[in-house]
Amino acid sequence: MKSKRIPLRKCVSCNEKKLKNELVRVVKKNDQSVEIDLLGKTNGRGAYICMNLECIDKAEESKKLSRALKIEVSKDIYENLRKSLK
């Protein structure tokens, strides 16, 4: 029996390749809104980030998430990422 392979994705903050289910996807939807996609199924441009405080802080300071999504990411998104850590 063939086991299902989990794809690798790269964190926009630390550039480490990790299993897709270890990262959180942030997506820019077609209506130009940005949201956290916990299921990984939402349509739109996606970027992945590690679920640790260092990566979230680094991405916010350097605007790496905004650059990856090609839109300004609001502070609310970063706050929601931090809340989901707890």
The structural class is alpha+beta
The backbone outline, from C-alpha atoms, is globular
How many distinct helices?
A: 3
Proportion in helices? 25-40%
Work out the strand percent.
Answer: 25-35%
Observed structural traits:
3 helices, 3-stranded antiparallel beta sheet, 86 residues, alpha+beta, two-stranded antiparallel sheet
Description of the molecule:
31% of the residues lie in helices and 26% in strands. The longest helix is centred in the C-terminal third of the chain and has 11 residues, at 75-85. The chain is globular. The protein is of the alpha+beta class and 86 residues long. Helix 1 packs antiparallel against helix 3 (75-85).
Condensed summary:
The protein is built from three helices and five strands. The chain has 86 residues and is an alpha+beta fold.
Chart the SSEs and their pairings.
Layout: E1 8-10, E2 17-19, E3 23-28, E4 34-37, E5 45-50, H1 53-62, H2 64-69, H3 75-85
Antiparallel strand pairs: 1-2, 3-4, 3-5
